[in-house]
Write a structure and sequence with these properties.
Largest sheet: 2 strands, antiparallel
Number of helices: 7
Strand order of the largest sheet: 1-2
Number of strands: 2
Shape: globular
Distance between the termini: 44 Å
Number of domains: 1
Structural class: mainly alpha
Radius of gyration: 16 Å
């Protein structure tokens, strides 16, 4: 008998650590802020994020899954709204229901791209971000200035 499905938490911890490592590596190649890279996704270790994420991404025996835990969406929303390397952080909702898309400062934009690269490497084992970006292009709401900078990196930067 496993102690409270501890394997799911171990596997999620290993994933987050692996992700952070690849974000650091990609971010250094992109000349992103070293401090931003070191502190990247530290909130994922808070119980309010860690537990719902682990329960969403892993079964109690540690196998991968996608089964949205009851607190996952609340945790993910808090993560996006408290971590400025997410494009959602820069979407400003007006009281009338319209939105303003704010420019992302370069340090957060570089961390965001490194995050995308690091996630792809941690999940799929490859430095491949172009296909993911093309697939999600119309969902990712960026200002024109930020979009131009992101496109330049995504379509021209080659990871070794």
């Amino acid at each position: 008998m496993q102690l409270f499905g501890i394997k799911r938490y171990i596997n999620y911890f290993k994933y987050v650590f692996r992700h952070k490592w690849f974000v650091l590596y990609a971010g250094i190649k992109l000349n992103a802020s070293l401090w931003r890279l070191i502190t990247h996704d530290m909130s994922k270790f808070k119980p309010s994020e860690f537990i719902p994420y682990a329960n969403t991404f892993y079964t109690s025996d540690g196998a991968s899954q996608w089964n949205v835990h009851k607190n996952y969406r609340r945790s993910w929303n808090a993560h996006m709204k408290n971590n400025p390397h997410h494009w959602q952080y820069w979407v400003y909702p007006n009281d009338d229901g319209s939105e303003v898309i704010l420019d992302m400062p370069e340090k957060y934009m570089l961390e965001m791209v490194a995050d995308w690269m690091g996630a792809g490497r941690a999940i799929h084992g490859k430095w491949e971000v172009v296909h993911w970006y093309n697939t999600n292009y119309n969902k990712i709401r960026l200002s024109d200035k930020t979009r131009k900078a992101v496109d330049e990196i995504i379509f021209n930067f080659k990871m070794e």
